[in-house]
Model the fold of this input.
Amino acid sequence: MRSSKPLGVAAMAAAAALTLTACGGGDSGGEGGGESTAGGSGESVRIGIKYDQPGLGYRDGDEYTGFDVDVAEYVAGELGYSEDQIEWVESPSANRENMLANDQVDMIFATYSITDARKETVDFAGPYFVAGQDLLVREDDSSIQGPEDLEGKNLCSVTGSTSAQKVKDDHPGANLVEQPGYADCLTALESGQVDAVTTDDIILAGLASTDANQGKFKVVGNTFSEERYGVGLPKGSDRCQAVNDAITKMIEEGAWEEAVTENTEGADYEYNRELNPPTPEPCA
Amino acid sequence: MSEYLNDFASLFDQYDVLGAFWVNIRLTFFAAIGSMLLGSLVALMRISPIASLRLAGTGYVNLFRNTPLTIILVFLVLGVWSQLGINLSEDFARNFFLYAVVGLSLYHAAFVCEAIRSGVNTVPVGQAEAARAIGLSFLPAARLIVFPQALRGAITPLGNTLIALTKNTTVAAAASVTEISALMKTMIEFRPDVIIAVFLTVALGFVLLVVPVGLLTTWASRKLAVKR
Amino acid sequence: MASSTARNVLFDVQGPRARRTTLVLNLVGVLLVAALAWVVLGRLADQGQLTAEKWAPLVTARTWENFLLPGLWQTLRAALLAVVLSIAFGLVFGLGRLSQPAIVRLVSTVVVEFFRAVPVLVMMIFFYLGLGRADLVEPANVPFWAVVLGLMFYNGSVIAELIRSGVHQLPRGQREAGLAIGLTPARSLRLIELPQALTAMLPSLVSQFVVILKDTALGYIITYPELLASGRRLGSGDGNILQTLFVVALVFVLINYLLTLLADRLSRFLSYRTAGRTKPAEGPVAAAAAQD
Done:
């Protein structure tokens, strides 16, 4: 997958040129194209995010917060859309591919892991973050340092999630309770009925950094999977390169670092510095 | 077409469809017993001489009949298990199975109670009068004369409650029980190619479970009807 | 409550001694309940679930404006549309089951029996994932339609049965009178029997609304932002999911209780006015209706 730097840059440039020419077409609605200002031309862009994941994508009335939201706003800005030109759309995990395939959204920033299976139906820009499955434990608990300590422990995850499945497959010795949401898991973790909650590290960090949970939990920081969060785009989209450029710029400007820190504050969390910040993959 | 069928058949290798259905059947079985016992008790309370018991019975029915089942289950797990720390079983998985049974029983007991009450309504006043006339007090009169007849009159609504219970076991996923609706969601998510077949399998599974219950109760209600 | 049945004759009015015993037992009962409540509340307090910071957010305007009221609106919206569609579905297939041609009766029977047997949640999941792939409805509306359709097929089938049994429960003279004045069976059904059956069904329909309203809560599983889902979202942001769900449950119980009362009132009011039976949740089908 990973190509050497110079080649990558060349590819970027080529794709950027393509993007610019494609701009003239201006077919379907909401297509801003271009990597600089004025591309929006009064149109809006529909961005899919999660509405129920504090720290990543969360809706509180007209306010949208979280790391995914921050990245989305930055990228949209680079594509020429002001904040009020963004139309947020809720994109629950199960419907992300459909929403892109059926032109219900233009981009998705919703803890969307890049996988080969998904690449068959959608395009990805990014990754803009490399997360990994991790464990959240109580602040004063040092008995769990990683997945190998899960034997005989009570573990909580969300019903039907990939994290839950992975634990079932790889750590059958752990007692897994599946709950409708991570907030339920945190309640059980706080009361001591479960010893750890598992899903992607940044999701855990986001949950633990909400006002009510600050200082109560810590992310173990020993990831045991690699989830590269990408920007979901409709198949054949001409935006991939522009999005990648925006992500690169965000990282270079330090806005990326700021967004991570801000959205995980109080969670005792360090993102994986070996893998982050990531270099966007060249567009296909 | 045959390729589609092959794809479909591979589902059964990949996922334990029958095993998941078996969970629903077991949930139905235990919750049916639980709700029947509890529901009879509440019905007895509702027709008892003691005002406070009647009040408690009415309150129970109004509370549980009007709360969505999924909220009841979430409260059991989130409130009773996670906050009060009550484990119903040493075995981790069985603990949640039992919680699901308790939740389903609590919810359907309200309907069992109403079914029995409607059955009691079918018992002519003369029966109760006769019971009183031969000197039976409330409990023996209820137990020996009224309830046996009321249950026969209540067979159809009870059967319907059983059907509803069977279908409502699909909500048990809210209490961390892996049953068929959860599996169906997983199957559709990972095997969108056979989405219709998955749905039809699950749907037909329930038709197979539910239709016999319906037929049986119709038959039983005719067979056991008190001729008047 | 004041039904003139076996209950009243099953026991005598209590005498002074029985009343005293009852009083003592009541006190004991109240004490037991109070003790249990004390233990439970104590446990919850230990867990920090009774603190002001967990409960206070629930009475702020933001909570209601941004989460609970929009959620309630989504719940009511889906429920109302589901009611309307269910009635339409019920009319079509209920009349189908009463109509003359055998093939129409057969098809209607199969449809009704099938959808009565399939759990609502299973149907919702199917429509949620199916509609999303089929690209049939507007963008973000997939969960909404999945909820509405799931509710419609199930409750529509129940209503079809209500209509059928409502017509069957009319005194036979109604139909005979219709035929006697020269109406065809179909016209007698439409002009004489159905209007009476529908009026008689009204309380059961209201009870059915309770069922529909409760079942919208399953929508959270397929990400429909109804009351329960909004409550969950709020609770996960504020770290007080238990407290939020408590309030959500309260709202559900309150609304449904009021609807149940309405159904009771309606049935009492209507019992003067029709030849049909108007008690809700009685008779085989109505009783089945009210429970999932």
